[in-house]
Amino acid sequence: MILTLKPNTPKKDIDLICRKIEELGFKPHLSKGKEVIVIGVIGQNAILKKDIFEAMDAVAFITPISKPYKLVSREFKKENTIIKIDNLKIGGKEIIVAAGPCSVETKELLLEIAEDAKKSGAKMIRGGAFKPRTSPYAFQGLGEEGLKYLAEARKKTGLLVITEVMNVKQVGIVTKYTDIIQIGARNMQNYDLLKEVGKARKPVLLKRGLSATIEEFLMSAEYILSNGNYDVILCERGIRTFETATRFTLDLNAVPVIKKLSHLPVFVDPSHGVGVREYIPAMSKASIACGADGLLLEVHPHPEKAFSDGPQSLLPKQFDVMMKELRLVAESVGRGL
Amino acid sequence: MILTLKPNTPKKDIDLICRKIEELGFKPHLSKGKEVIVIGVIGQNAILKKDIFEAMDAVAFITPISKPYKLVSREFKKENTIIKIDNLKIGGKEIIVAAGPCSVETKELLLEIAEDAKKSGAKMIRGGAFKPRTSPYAFQGLGEEGLKYLAEARKKTGLLVITEVMNVKQVGIVTKYTDIIQIGARNMQNYDLLKEVGKARKPVLLKRGLSATIEEFLMSAEYILSNGNYDVILCERGIRTFETATRFTLDLNAVPVIKKLSHLPVFVDPSHGVGVREYIPAMSKASIACGADGLLLEVHPHPEKAFSDGPQSLLPKQFDVMMKELRLVAESVGRGL
Amino acid sequence: MILTLKPNTPKKDIDLICRKIEELGFKPHLSKGKEVIVIGVIGQNAILKKDIFEAMDAVAFITPISKPYKLVSREFKKENTIIKIDNLKIGGKEIIVAAGPCSVETKELLLEIAEDAKKSGAKMIRGGAFKPRTSPYAFQGLGEEGLKYLAEARKKTGLLVITEVMNVKQVGIVTKYTDIIQIGARNMQNYDLLKEVGKARKPVLLKRGLSATIEEFLMSAEYILSNGNYDVILCERGIRTFETATRFTLDLNAVPVIKKLSHLPVFVDPSHGVGVREYIPAMSKASIACGADGLLLEVHPHPEKAFSDGPQSLLPKQFDVMMKELRLVAESVGRGL
Amino acid sequence: MILTLKPNTPKKDIDLICRKIEELGFKPHLSKGKEVIVIGVIGQNAILKKDIFEAMDAVAFITPISKPYKLVSREFKKENTIIKIDNLKIGGKEIIVAAGPCSVETKELLLEIAEDAKKSGAKMIRGGAFKPRTSPYAFQGLGEEGLKYLAEARKKTGLLVITEVMNVKQVGIVTKYTDIIQIGARNMQNYDLLKEVGKARKPVLLKRGLSATIEEFLMSAEYILSNGNYDVILCERGIRTFETATRFTLDLNAVPVIKKLSHLPVFVDPSHGVGVREYIPAMSKASIACGADGLLLEVHPHPEKAFSDGPQSLLPKQFDVMMKELRLVAESVGRGL
User: Fold this and answer.
1) Helix, strand, or coil (residue C228)
2) What CATH number is associated with residue B127?
3) What DSSP state is assigned to residue B49?
4) Of C243, C291, C328, which has the smallest distance from its Cβ to A251's Cβ?
5) What CA–CA distance (Å, rounded) separates B328 from D333?
6) CATH number, domain at B38?
7) Which of residues 60-89 of D touch C (CB under 8 A)?
8) Count: domains in chain D
9) ipTM value
10) Are residues D140 and D266 in the same domain?
11) CA D266 to CA A59: how far, in whole Å?
12) For the whole model, what pTM was predicted?
């Protein structure tokens, strides 16, 4: 970390700052030019004490020379992380598609969707048993009953299960039934929940918050890794902007950016990100073209009867057609699907 | 709720939609013009089924004619809600100021700040014992120890205590020590936590999420009220925009908007919203001028030693000067402080 | 356009509104339900009078049932517009790439870049002679001299020229030298400039404003078409959001959305949208995968010597490698390049 | 400007960078620590060459130690700029209110509004003769006829005139009739127009662009000052965010920020910023409380008949009541109105 002091900072204040740096266990490296005074703060993790220096009146600018995260960074681990579950490799050459309804509704429906999804090439079934809904009056999910249906779908089809956990008390039960634990966008900075899934023994898919910077997103993943769970998938799902033609603004730029900064696999959720059925295929193709390792997609045979998010669900037939198109795009960038 | 159908929707589809409306327990009211077909969906809470109609291909537009929230709305309760704690009235003529450090650090420091704050006219002491921090490596708060210090500060000064709860398991312990339970911005859509504090017997201050619309903010408050707790304070604390000169963009427009839509008291947190010490007084005055019922302010005698958020903390002396200025502005809009 | 009145609007006010509708040359279609009063405003272009009804106290909601633009819409023209310049077809099966420096600097350099770009498969040379720069002290472009170099590059290589016009007085001179007139993002709502290029006899590439909604973008294009020039290309180039890892947030969602709403060709400018060299190939592939008809790319052999936008320029060699990759993606979605 | 190089940059590259710095007329100041290599670029306006260094692969971070603007900065001029027009002082102790319709419509109406506004305490009449409208089919303003009405209103009431100019060709005619030339938000980065009004002999009110950072706003003002016109008023008018309850998000934080960074007077336009009549008084009070030097307000006796922006216009009576309230707030912060 480099501190640039305000011009004409008196010697007394420079000394004070240097002493403070030493107190914190770092070494100051002072460089006085004609117009500028610069102090390097040398030592591991100095950046974590940024706040202290920001509060000093004599400090004009702070230049971070290291990232505020460690374990999730490419510097820490050069090769891509590949998460293995049964025979599936997430983050490898093959692109993984998870499909399913937004909410688990009935067992029959879930099994029907799962079987269709499998035939089209999906490798995972997705569906919420615990649902974070904007309105307290909206359907809040089937709870454990829903988890059981998911487990049954897994048994019948061999698809892996991914489903959301909403609070620290649910981590145990969700972990019991699912293959991958999902943390929703609205919980990306629910730090106690991140710590809890960091202690779980199942991979975690972490969705980006609606207004989270990529750096904050990686910091939230760092919470999970630093608690012992290294199997984390990062999922872009749309950010909030002024545009209203789409439900959110799916930020595909995040894919190459995260791929550069981190070794973790990156998924994209075009269904939530765009929110309009007819734009999903185009954005799914784009996700693969720019480097995504997987997709989360909503599929529902009767979107108008879905308990939630009907407008963005693909019909099984649309999904099937799209999967064929995605395969071609995947091959064009040297991947499989 | 009014459905506008796509031009030339065949009769068969119109009939289907009308039947669906009846199935859901509402009455359809069909109006066919030359170019337009409009169906009114008549009945209580029809808006809560909006998703179902959005998923229908024949529906071009949906016009909500009622708000998706009830208990928090001005329609439900015309007069301003006044929350009484001991002798304090929140939401009345007097503007309430809560001051204190971002994090509770040591007992001595907290007591010192509390006494200074009281002398300057603050009515509450604020400070975090459980801290939501972006980095897993940053100070995470003193936990229950911090709550005890807050309780002691209350005992010594008579200031009411407001402090944050971060997860469902902490609600019990926080409720035990605090006068007002704070839900932080990053937890505004942590619905299980909202339900839990909805069952608590203490008032709740709910902060607006970084990218939450005012409607979503009110929906989150509705979670608390619908679980039985009607003593909710809404707190604007800055939203995320492209501007980087301030830490967030304090959205004061939210104050008159919420005052119109809801009967609940509205606070503003300029310290977090702006994030730069020298702009706090101007934005505090503006908050009062546009109708805020209270302010949350960070005060710290040694900001450069604070464990968090030093750059935005006022010195006790600056706070004292500002309180005198705020009093004049409060009087100019017919309020006291 | 449908007006939903506030509940309990007195008959007198309903009559007033109906009379106003007739005065404006439309027909009112009144529908009174138990809880709701709805008035359809029947007639061509009623939506253009929206402001008038919004200002009425009795009107609670306005539902537009037609788009505020006409000539640019898919309703007006079903088939894709294909713009023909010499042998080139823009908006057809082939994807068109324009490459070149941000600013025209020297003749030699421009010719060198043009020849390299051509070899790699570009069909147009891009470069600014008039430059909109944030700072008055930055290089403002070579002016007409730059236009001459571009014309010379065209003569030598056969590449078509695209270059920016910044004000109404320059339209004549720019039109003289260029094949396609570019309107920059900061001028997207410079309506007098739009009218002027609407009268020009050359195709126009219109860039989306930094915070323009897609609807506003189409309205700006409507200015050009309604002045007689139907050869308009719409270009997504990144919007402003809170994210700082990329220079702007390239909004690829805009591509399928515009393709649905309009018949005009859509280009993408990943160089400006992302602003970081190493992310350009990924986002270029994604642009093609989601349906873009062309790309605008910055290429410069010595980015560190460029007069502007060096950090986002590709080296000719990088460009060449990328073009080969783009060809594969184009083929995977049934296009050529 | 300070360059922080990537760790392990070879000596050869360091030398190259130092040589480049000298070539550009600056002095390099090298400081090599154990982990960090820092080069200070010493010399006037080094920051203007930032692009060149950003394009260098070895450069990891650039810390600007000076602002990219000069003439508009507090460093350049410590005291507040006070613009004198006749007996009026803009930027002094008195807060100046400009009131009037969005568009100039008829002479009679304009005179009526002007007389009412004057009685209530306004010092300027505002109204557009040239109107930037999103739709090409909307009313585009009366042109010179409108300017004449404004001049007549000035003659009758003594109110100063402020009106908008939209392109370089109109500057002459607008300057002839108006006291203050307004540049609209959509033209904030219309650099040729900024240069042109920089040569005009009348004060300029520059509105902030919808997605312009405060730094870009000041850079645009710098265009005007650097062309010779030092009488510039900066006007906050709302930025674009995700919030839809207000038309834009009026960013009052900009007021204290600009006051700190610049010596120029700051106005606020709550009518456009909020866009909803009933929120205007609250936000006008807040504008004054946080330090605005003046307000731009829309007043119209028949908002439902206005040619534009009716929903945000105050009735003359509402305006009159509000002005009395604003006076109290102004006094509470030591100002007059």
Assistant:
1) coil
2) 3.20.20.70
3) G
4) C243
5) 8
6) 3.30.70.1140
7) 68-69
8) 2
9) 0.93
10) yes
11) 28
12) 0.94
